Each structure stands twice: as C-alpha cells, then as structure tokens.
C-alpha cells in the first residue's frame, strides 16, 4: 500500500518553517456541525476517502461513518491563494487526493505574519472533513501538520487497521449481547470514533488518580514508541474537543469523564 522509498532528502523534522501550515480554526460553515460528528476522527487512507460511499452529506467506508478523517501522505503539489491552499497529497494507496485548507492571509499583513503552505515533498498529517466540489471529492482540512518523525506514518497505518478491527468487534459483540451501546463502547473500547492512540492517551489520563491530574511525562514514559510531538498533538486535540482539561499547569491533565 505504501512505498518504502524516501520522497526526498529535503524532509527535515527540525525545520521550523514546516510548522506554518497549522490552522487552529475550522473553515467557514464548520461551526454548526453536530457534536457527534466532531468526536468521529477516523484514520484512513486516501483510497478509502475516494472510494467511500455517500448517503446525502454522509460518507462511509463499509459501514464505518467517516465524519472527520485523518490522512498522512506527502505533498505532491500545492497551489496558493490569499484565502486557500490546495494540496495534492499522495500516499500510494490510490490516486492523489486534493486537500483544501482555508487561511486568513489578509493583504495588509506582513509577509512573516502570513501562513505559508508546506513545500512539495513534505510528509504531512491532515485532519478534516470529506467534501465534494464540482463532482470532485476532497478533504477540507482544519489542521495540517508536518511529520516530526516517520514513525508517525507507521502508527497511522496501525490505527487504520485497529479502527476497522475495533468496529467489526463492536458490531459483532452488539449483535450477540443485549447491552447499552454507549456504555459498552466507552468502557471496552474507549471513546467511539477516536483513533487508537487518542484512546490510549485518554485512558492513561483517566486512570491517574492524583488530584493534580496526569503529568504529561507519564504519558511519554508509557508510550515510548510514540514521539512526544505526536502525543502533544493528541493532547491538544482531546483538550480542544472537551475530553480532557488542564489542572495545576499546562502539563497536568484530567479526563472530563473521570
């Protein structure tokens, strides 16, 4: 599915300029999405996005609902305008996918204040919603990050496999047992719709009994195979979506459902 060939030696995880593509806000029109949609972040391949079935405004990979998706690939090309970056992202699972990111680069802003697009041949992780413009399917991304460690690519692929296995297990178990779906999925499999890494981090924080919450260093120690930057991104997402909150400082967290 994925090529093992390096895209280009220009990839440099220590290059600060590669952090310019992060956009904290959602594009216009996203604020009114339902809360359950916001919880459903699904790691996918580009092929899954392009081959997903559509029912009205909803997309599905098999029976898995694709609300917010996360893809990882490299920038094949990018077109820049004052309001939007249009990326062509490649992950070797199919044809490249267009990822659109809306920006607020106003004319009176200084050049160093404007958001810069990621350069070609940069590996990136994009989170957003599937959309269709002019009959062409794309992802409108609220967040795009440069990979700081290529192990994030391996983690992403494992999360895709785990997500499909988890969904199949939930479906089979719910068919055999008469239980409350929400309670069952939360207690046995974490927060429905979140990736494996997101649920791992949430569970570590939730299981920490200390009044001051879980120190982020504890998460680093328990998830040694995951980069610190990746863990910080997950914590930022969980905090933004209301699953966790900071306590005594910005390195201690408690779960909202703990």
Automatic annotation (TrEMBL):
GO terms, biological process: DNA replication; double-strand break repair via homologous recombination; nucleotide-excision repair
Domain Replication protein A C-terminal stretches: 167-250
Region (Disordered): 1-34
Pfam families the UniProt entry points to: RPA_C
SUPFAM superfamilies: Nucleic acid-binding proteins, Winged helix' DNA-binding domain
Subcellular location: Nucleus
Nucleus listed as a keyword: yes
InterPro entries associated with the record: NA-bd_OB-fold (IPR012340), RFA2-like (IPR040260), Rfa2/RPA32 (IPR014646), RPA_C (IPR014892), WH-like_DNA-bd_sf (IPR036388), WH_DNA-bd_sf (IPR036390)
UniProt keywords, alphabetically: DNA replication, DNA-binding, Nucleus
Annotated GO MF terms: single-stranded DNA binding
Compositional bias per record (Polar residues), positions renumbered to this chain: 1-18
GO cellular component: chromosome, telomeric region; DNA replication factor A complex; site of double-strand break
Entry keyword annotation includes Metal-binding: no
Family recorded in the similarity comment: Belongs to the replication factor A protein 2 family.
The name this protein goes by in its record: RFA2
Species name: Acanthosepion pharaonis
Origin organism lineage: Eukaryota, Metazoa, Spiralia, Lophotrochozoa, Mollusca
